[in-house]
Prior knowledge:
By secondary structure, the protein is α/β, with parallel strands linked by helices. Helix content is 20%, strand content 35%.
Amino acid sequence: MRPNLSRILIVGTQCPTSAPNSLQPLVSHSACQTKLCTSARAAARSVGALGRAQAGSTLVATVIISALIGTVLCSYLALIANRNQVAMRALAWNTAMPVLEAGIEEALTHLNRDSNSPTANYWTADQVNGKAVYWKYRALPDGSYFYVTNFNVASPSPIIQSAGYVRSPLSDNQYISRVVQVTATNPPSLFGRAIAANGTVKLSGGSTVDGYNSTNGPYDFSTNRNASGGIATNSKQDNAIDVGSAHVYGKAVTGAGGSVSYAGGSVGDLNQTFGIEDGWTGDDMNVSFQTNSPPAGTPFKPQTTQVGISNITYLTASSSTYIYQTDSFVSNDKTRPMIVTGNCTLWVTGNFAVLGSGYVYIAPGASLNLYVGGMASISGGGVVNGTGSPANFSYFGLSSNTVLNYNGSADFVGTINAPQANFTIGGGVSVYGAIICNTFNSGGGASVHYDQALNGGGKFMVNSWREL
């Protein structure tokens, strides 16, 4: 059977001849078929090699793409893991702050409640650079803990260092820590001593400075008296506190380099009758007394009421919104007194004077906050605090109040906060309460009896904060 040469010739190679087709016979079937088969096999081999090459290229491309995708995925997972660790460390870093703040709260509570017993409640005494310090460790339920240390605990400006530790994320037995140092102080509007001054303090005439506690009743030499009548001044000069022949039953503290002198008097505990007892003086006073601001509220002028022949200034309004305000006040006769029957605030922008037989009377159950912008001179009948409590009469000297004299016939029962005023007291009267002034000078046996109850709310406050 003759093969279909036309199909073979279409895809193959025509058998060669040496003469035109019209003159040569066809090439024998077997020879041409052999050549055509050889060409077909060569073509098949070429196609197979091409297919294998293409398959290999596809495999290589797949491997490369897979490797790239794997690399990208691994990088992304590493990035996510790193971001997660950074976020967890940031969370731990922030968590350390409330932990160390817990230490600061613990230290402030200890300073306020255990001022006379610095090792109470498991605080440990130690020394740093030769100075006494007190520290405490406390572990918290979540595994965090803090170390807190109090420095200068006997001063009005103690230093607290607190370190908080929290577990480091994804790490065993490792902690992240933060350390903060704060400085605390007693607010100057609160009274921690019988007399606190910026300048010199001078006692004379056998004066007595001691303490008592009004929550136990009135001052009593036998049953309600203690050695809390401290004196403190920022003055750094010699004789910054001149005791003279007076007796100070409490500590006497000056500014750095200042000194305490006496001439027949004493400083110390209740049984100290002459000289200065060891450990009852110091020179580390350093307090900045804040300037008093005028009272806030809607002002209205106090009215005078005529009763018979008397012209009485009544203060009756018990309000935190309204205040009494006047340019000046003078009570120079018993027919021209001021009588306070409410819980009142009076702002005298100018001078305040009580003299002759004049007086100011604070009725039982009432209270008076007196702000003075000019000079104040109180004599005559003085200020009679019918409540018997120093907390019910507060004298505030504004920045322009530089002179305050008191020698009335009535004892001063109240507090004086006049950081710019030079305060002089005489006439044998006494102060029951506490005093903040610029300078203090007593004569005629005038005494100061410090009311410990005034310090009940005298909490240490943080006035500076620094992360170490």
